[in-house]
Specification:
The chain is α/β, with parallel strands linked by helices and 561 residues long. Helix content is 31%, strand content 22%. The strands form 7 sheets. It has a 9-stranded mixed sheet, sandwiched between helices.
């Protein structure tokens, strides 16, 4: 595979050592202007990290140094193989030596990672960070075209890849002639064996770039989000400590890839910061997650609503004696899913919301005062409000744009959309919410999912919640469909329950069902039945694809007139 030179220093195989004094400023130089940065809140000192900081040292080396090296750290769900903190530290050091010695990695170089969740992927992630590099994680499902966009945006010149996933990187190189230098895990393992133990961590600062995370594509073109060393530490002070009361005796399990910040936090940042254990599931199917929970003593499970819905059906009758908290994110949590999971396990689902731009969770439904259906309240150290289009705060009960700020915030890599996401120092995730009189925030969809029909604002999520209460509906999405008289109207795309056939009679029944529970102007004027809804790799419904489909159909109808 090819070697190409970028605007910064680039890794070159067998370039030799002696890179300690060099620095690749690519990411730092492409941060947004300072006046477009969000305001960060450090009212609580626990969120403030300053001075020298290397995330690999804090998550792994610290435990070894303080006498906890023999404690279990990672468990491979499928094989049961255990990695201790000392063993992980040794792997990280050897990989870092390979990268800086054999491949000439210098601080600031971007390294693309491509693998399913595994101890090797965790070791590679932390080795890049320990050497001062910038991690660019990618989903195993991505194809060469998508990988090409990421490589071009981040100018990643080195890729560490599971041998089973090499073909798409090879296809990228063949198509463009400008693919990254690829180091397969098999070859990396051989090179690791040749390295002496020990590696001195690069002296990174809390404000140095450590991660470039790409958004998952619910709105089309992905964005590259830059996070600093201190950001990765700050999020470990929020959800795991405040909401979950997690500690070193907990066993974490994530149903999400490490390529996404939700999975990164749940599988790496949170457990390793606490000196706890992380169970890594390579292919996080509902069956695999249930097996991992039952066989490895999982106490904290992180999944998405679609995952919980499937696991609730499959897990009835199974015992999970160690499970104590179940966390959901990525999309709205339907009440039906909440109830089904509670019936199957006796445990509530703790709904949360976060974003790649905010790195992880900024709001959660407090388990000691849980309100089913609500997303919850901001974590302490974060502030949230609902605003209108002119950025004026809205009173309780009014739907508007969510604005959030805290110890972490959005910084896009060389992207004009920074000015859209950060306004007046606040982050605008693009979510529509209302807040009630008790300070609970209720999700009402994406702001671009709001439907304006004959002057009425309609929340597609609100209509979806009603439809999901009908026994014939397994999944649904409600979006705006062009209409000559009303501008747009709500249209429901419905996946029927097993054994149910869609058709005009069921469509009319569902429309009547919505009219019975909501104001008449909110009911879906059209219902289309589907076998599946379009989703991202993280399970989020891609409503924009359904909206685009309706726009294309409207354009075709116009052409025929």
């Amino acid at each position: 595979m090819s070697q190409t030179s970028g605007r910064g220093d680039s890794p070159t195989p067998d370039a030799g050592r002696g890179n300690a004094g060099r620095f690749d400023a690519f990411a730092r130089d492409r941060l947004p202007p300072r006046n477009q940065w969000p305001e960060l809140l450090f009212d609580q000192p626990r969120y403030r990290f300053e001075g020298p900081l290397n995330i690999a040292v804090e998550l792994v080396d610290r435990h070894v140094r303080e006498g906890r090296g023999s404690r279990p750290c990672l468990i491979e769900a499928e094989s049961g193989r255990v990695t201790t903190y000392a063993e992980l530290a040794d792997r990280i050091d050897r990989i870092a030596s390979v990268l800086t010695g054999g491949f000439g990695l210098v601080a600031g170089n971007r390294v693309l990672l491509r693998a399913p969740n595994s101890p090797m992927l965790v070791a590679c992630w932390l080795a890049v960070a320990k050497a001062g590099g910038v991690v660019v994680p990618t989903m195993p499902l991505l194809r060469s075209r998508e990988l090409g966009v990421i490589c071009a945006k981040a100018e990643a010149r080195l890729a560490l890849c599971d041998d089973r996933l090499l073909p798409e990187l090879a296809a990228l190189d063949a198509a463009t002639g400008a693919g990254p230098v690829v180091l397969p895990f098999g070859e990396l393992t051989e090179r690791m064996a040749e390295q002496p133990p020990g590696f001195e961590a690069f002296a990174t600062d809390a404000g140095d770039v450590c991660l470039i995370a790409f958004t998952s594509g619910t709105t089309g073109s992905p964005k590259a989000v830059v996070h600093f060393q201190r950001d990765l530490m700050a999020v470990t002070e929020g959800l795991p400590r405040e909401i979950l009361n997690a500690g070193p005796d907990d066993v974490f399990c994530a149903g999400s890839s490490l390529a996404f910040t939700y999975g990164l936090g749940a599988a790496v940042l949170f457990p390793l910061r606490l000196g706890a254990v992380s169970v890594l599931v390579e292919t996080a199917t509902p069956e695999a997650l249930l097996d991992a929970m039952a066989e490895h003593g999982v106490s904290l499970i992180f999944s998405v609503p679609t995952g919980y819905r499937a696991m609730a059906d499959l897990g009835r009758g199974r015992a999970f004696p160690t499970l104590r908290a179940c966390i959901s994110a990525a999309e709205a949590l339907p009440r039906r899913t909440f109830d089904a999971w509670f019936e199957a396990t006796g445990l509530p689902i703790i709904d949360t919301i976060g974003s790649t731009e905010m790195l992880h969770t900024f709001m959660a439904n407090p388990p000691d005062a849980l309100r089913p259906g609500a997303t919850g309240k901001p974590l302490s150290g974060y502030q949230a409000m609902v605003v209108d289009e002119t950025f004026r705060p809205l009173p309780a009960g009014r739907v508007g744009r969510l604005a959030i700020r805290g110890p972490v915030g959005c910084r896009y890599l060389d992207d004009p959309r920074q000015a859209e996401y950060v306004q007046h120092g606040w982050n605008l995730p693009g979510d529509a919410f209302l807040v009630d009189d008790d300070g609970y925030f209720w999700y009402r969809g994406r702001t671009d999912d709001m439907i304006v029909s004959s002057g009425y604002n309609i929340s597609g999520i609100e209509v979806e919640e009603v439809l999901l209460e009908h026994h014939a509906v397994r999944e649904c999405a409600v979006v705006a469909s062009p209409d000559d008289r009303r501008g747009t109207v709500p249209k429901a795309f419905v996946v029927p329950s097993d054994g149910v056939r869609g058709g005009p009679e069921l469509a009319a029944e569902l429309q009547a069902f919505v009219r019975k529970h909501l104001a008449r102007y909110k009911y879906p004027r059209a219902v289309e039945f589907m076998t599946a809804l379009p989703r991202t790799e993280t399970g989020k419904i891609q409503r924009f694809k359904l909206r685009d489909l309706e726009l294309e159909r409207a354009a075709e109808r116009t052409c025929l007139l």
